[in-house]
Write a structure and sequence with these properties.
The structure holds two protein chains of two kinds.
Chain A lengths: L1 H11 L17 H49 L4 H35 L5 H23 L4 H30 L2
Helix pairs in contact in A: 2-3, 2-5, 3-5, 4-5
Chain B lengths: L11 H8 L3 H23 L2 H18 L9 H19 L19 H16 L2 H11 L5 H8 L3 H24 L1 H6 L1
Helix pairs in contact in B: 1-2, 2-3, 2-4, 2-6, 3-4, 5-8, 6-8, 7-8
The chains are: A mainly alpha, B mainly alpha.
């Protein structure tokens, strides 16, 4: 048994390279490694919270859209009733506008953070981003004439969510590439 | 029998901690495998400075991807593959690195002088080999990889690995023999 083992060893390492001692680096690399890992963990936490926030925002937009549509269906039935209900509807309308405005503002600030965190964007995504930003600018122009339009504010929020989705997709692709290294 | 130094088992607790991103567990792993990782990186890259960069990059990648380690094979084998892949790609990025550094060994007692001389002879002979030949002979003879696995690292065929190994061993033998037969000439050279 011993003979065959040593034969295998000689066959595998005839020059005795395994007898060379282990080498040690001149400096300790742990600090650099730790720093890189902590930076990545912080980035992931930020991205995770941004994604969670966007998911919440998306569900809020959906809720607003569904409510708007439902009230749109109910409006013709409500018309014959007195003016008081029209006032109530306008109050309700203003609530929706306010919630969409605050949603839009929060999305804007989230997008600012996302843009800062994101490195270079592929050309095709950059084209979509530019188109969406143009559309946001168009909606903003229309909003300057009718600032209380639920539909316009809804459009604005949707466009911002589309923008966020492009960045999210970019992160996922980037993470996938990093994981396959 | 001496070995590559990598085959150190790690406990499940440390591994689970590293998977959770616990820095203490990551540091334990780093301390355990730092020397074997650096050794293989030096053997492939032939440059301590580059090997140090490669080792750090490899550990960062390994800790980022540790969640992908399924546990159906030893952890050290997985980690070693990450280090070798990093070292080979660093070599591809800097194929013409001419920094050759010889390892210096010190003998602590007179009986060690022969061993030290032998080790230094092997060291300088290794430096004479081409990057691919040196890597292949190290991966096969020291790390115990099969030709099929070595071929995969280089994206080439098994016969490429076999041919290069035979050539590298022949060259190494020649270099060692000439160093033994003419030590003064070699010392001057």
């Amino acid at each position: 048994m011993n003979i065959s083992l040593s034969t295998i060893t000689i066959h595998q390492d005839p020059l005795g390279l395994r007898d060379l001692p282990l080498l040690k680096p001149d400096t300790d690399g742990w600090t650099t490694i730790r720093q890189a890992l902590e930076e990545q963990q912080a980035r992931q936490r930020k991205q995770r919270s941004a994604i969670t926030w966007l998911a919440v925002a998306a569900s809020m937009v959906l809720a607003v859209i569904v409510t708007t549509r439902q009230s749109g269906i109910e409006q013709p039935l409500a018309k014959p009733v007195a003016t008081q209900s029209t006032d109530l509807a306008s109050v309700d309308n203003m609530d929706k506008v306010h919630s969409l405005i605050s949603l839009s503002q929060t999305l804007e600030s989230q997008l600012r953070n996302i843009r800062e965190e994101t490195g270079s964007i592929p050309a095709n995504s950059a084209v979509y981003i530019a188109e969406l930003e143009d559309l946001v600018a168009q909606v903003d122009t229309e909003l300057s004439y009718s600032p209380d339009s639920v539909s316009l504010w809804g459009q604005r929020v949707n466009l911002l969510l589309d923008l966020a989705q492009i960045y999210q997709h970019h992160w996922e692709t980037e993470y996938g590439q990093m994981a396959s290294l | 029998m001496a070995h590559s130094g990598f085959d150190i088992e790690i406990d499940d607790f440390t591994l689970a901690g590293a998977k959770r991103g616990d820095m203490g567990a990551c540091e334990r792993i780093y301390r355990l495998y730092q020397a074997p990782a650096f050794t293989v990186a030096v053997r492939v890259c032939r440059c301590r400075e580059l090997a140090q960069e490669v080792t750090q990059e490899a550990f960062i990648t390994a800790f980022r991807r540790i969640g992908q380690f399924r546990g159906d094979a030893p952890f050290w084998g997985w980690l070693r593959r990450v280090v070798i892949n990093h070292a080979i790609s660093a070599l591809r990025r800097q194929p013409k690195a001419e920094i050759v550094e010889f390892e210096e060994y010190q003998a602590w007692d007179p009986g060690e002088h022969d061993q030290i001389g032998m080790a230094m002879g092997l060291e300088s002979a290794l430096q004479e080999l081409s990057d691919e030949d040196r890597t292949i002979v190290w991966l096969h003879d020291v790390e115990g990889y099969k030709h099929q696995e070595i071929a995969k690292f280089f994206g080439k065929t098994e016969s490429f690995s076999k041919t290069r190994l035979a050539r590298a061993r022949k060259r190494l033998r020649g270099l060692i023999e000439s160093a033994i037969s003419d030590p003064i000439a070699n010392a001057i050279a």
